[in-house]
Design goal:
By secondary structure, the protein is mainly α. The protein is 61% helix and 8% strand. The longest helix has 41 residues.
Length: 196
């Protein structure tokens, strides 16, 4: 079923699926999960493409004395940046970052969830500034048509500037969702697998 919600004062109609309690949170979770999976898949494709690109470059260099021009620029500007920033939300969702629980290892339940919520708010602030600044830089570099000089020609690198704000924006959505769940007491605290 669908419910029509009217936003106050704007007259816009929003159509949202209803599944009972927490509908919007589940919708945000589904959207974030889909985006995280999609960006992680793009990063995985970039790993494979980079592998073939570098292999062909080395093959061409040693067997034909003709490497592929611009390989270093493509690796530095596109492949590495995409591989690092696009799957951030996917890694965060799987709690794949390094965590040190030296001061929190004795905390349990509500206290730990509250602390994780507060850390999440600080993370949101940082990510918000990061998305904003990298987004501004991406727009500027797009307008300039940023290029790097290779050994024989120029390589357009402005499209890779968008990897940072896009990947980080999806991570921001994930962290926002996690913070809401932490303060509602609906998440399990993040614990080290060695402690279980």
């Amino acid at each position: 079923f669908f419910v029509l919600d009217r936003l106050r004062g704007y007259g816009h109609v929003v159509i949202a699926p209803t599944y009972g309690r927490g509908t919007r949170m589940r919708l945000i979770e589904k959207i974030t999960d889909s985006l995280a999976n999609y960006l992680a898949a793009i990063a995985a494709v970039l790993v494979v493409v980079m592998m073939f690109h570098v292999s062909l470059d080395v093959f061409g260099k040693y067997f034909f004395a003709h490497p592929i021009e611009g390989t270093i620029e493509y690796v530095a500007a596109y492949y590495m940046v995409g591989i690092i920033f696009l799957p951030l939300a996917y890694v965060s969702r799987g709690e794949g970052q390094i965590m040190v629980d030296l001061f929190t290892q004795k905390l349990t339940g509500r206290k730990l969830r509250f602390l994780e919520g507060c850390v999440g708010i600080c993370t949101l602030l940082y990510l918000g500034v990061f998305v904003w600044r990298t987004g501004v830089a991406a727009v500027e570099k797009t307008m300039q048509g940023e290029m790097w000089e290779s050994s024989v020609d120029y390589v357009a690198v402005w499209p890779s500037r968008w990897f940072l704000p896009v990947g980080t924006a999806v991570m921001t959505l994930f962290v926002l969702h996690r913070v809401f769940l932490n303060f509602q007491g609906k998440t399990k605290p993040i614990v080290n697998e060695d402690d279980e």
